[in-house]
């Protein structure tokens, strides 16, 4: 799995859209934490591809904020 930062903007949008799980590092980086009590488990982060403690991307607003920013970068080109 390619590191997230090396993907094209379209690739980054696709990965964030398709991700079902995220580790807290990626969640903090690309999303906004929105839930008071979320469950975590050991699994594969769908964003960075590493095995660590993960949670649902829903808990980070489905990365809505970053996806919107990336789309506006696409549109401004
Ligand atoms: Zn991650």
Describe the structure in your own words.
- The protein has 77 residues and is of the alpha+beta class.
- The protein contains three helices and three strands, in the order H-E-H-E-E-H.
- The protein has a three-stranded antiparallel sheet.
- A hairpin with a 6-residue loop joins strand 2 and strand 3 (51-56).
- Helix 1 (9-18) packs antiparallel against helix 3.
- It is flat.
- The N and C termini lie far apart (27 Å).
- The structure holds zinc ion.
- The site of zinc ion (ZN) has 8 residues, from strand 1 and helix 2.
Features:
77 residues; alpha+beta; 17% strand; binds zinc ion
Compose a concise summary of this entry:
The chain has 77 residues and is an alpha+beta fold. It has helices at residues 9-18, 24-30, 64-75; strands at residues 21-23, 41-44, 51-56.
Shape: flat
Gyration radius, rounded: 12 Å
Number of domains: 1
Alpha-beta classification: alpha+beta
Uncertain stretches of 5 or more adjacent residues: none
Set down the secondary structure blueprint:
Elements lengths: L8 H10 L2 E3 H7 L10 E4 L6 E6 L7 H12 L2
Antiparallel strand pairs: 1-3, 2-3
Helix pairs in contact: 1-3
Bound molecules: zinc ion.
